Amino acid sequence: MIKPQSSPSPEGDQSSVTWPIKRIHRNRAERSEVDDYVVVEEPLEIVLNDRSIAVLMRMPGQEKDLAAGFCISEGYVRHARDILIIHHCGSGLPAPGEEETDDGTGSRNRVELMVAAEGLLTPKGPDVLRLIRSGCGAADVTALSETLPHLPSGFTVAPSLILGLGKAMRDLQKLHHMVGGTHSAAIFEATGQHVTQAEDIGRHNAVDKALGFCLLRRIALEDKVLITSGRASYEMATKAIRLGIPVIATISAPTSMAVQLAQDRGLTLIGYLRGGRMNVYTHANRLVGA
Q1: Is 136 a catalytic residue?
Q2: pTM to 2 decimal places
């Protein structure tokens, strides 16, 4: 079977490609053939001190941020300052239908980190390479929360400001508006000032990209708000708590384990942030006047 040809999206964007489709309408007799955009999904191998620790299924872009965010939020590396070298290998895979070159620049699917010995941690669980799919997390729930810190209670933010951040995040989703199929994560100041935003096919990847952006630039997270489009799972709450983020809000729903963990570790967890309303599940004391 011959596979349809695809091509990169305009302006060299590696995050989407065009693909020939047949567009069929319920109430129309005609069927149109057009080129449509689809989001790119590729593996990214993360190598930590010459040891391959994970393969993430992700959308290309912000590979260094993603690798740093993943390693620290998942408990492989203690602090961003412990990362001595972070190297993204290659410029990119060929688009489907194109030939791969042999000049050593053909793979964008590997990030290598060298970490100081004192900053290297060993998460609980078997010493095996983990394949982490775009829709799933990777945290070991059997370890639960023994090693996670209790968040201090000093940070506060206005509820009216939080209510506007869901739309603010969606307005920043350029690729989602064009292609669809992506999750988003954004970090804001307590004043509503936008710090960074990231998109990916995986909600955990989007969060790790946003976190990694801040970590590699030494931007403090203890006084920030994390907004995400994906459901607030145990893994998402773990990432926020481990990095000291006091408030996380999602336009989707939380899970029972996320709510229990947030309550235990002092995280303000907000769900269903849309349509001018939100549900505050834990530690509403951080919302001034709530």
Answers
A1: yes
A2: 0.84
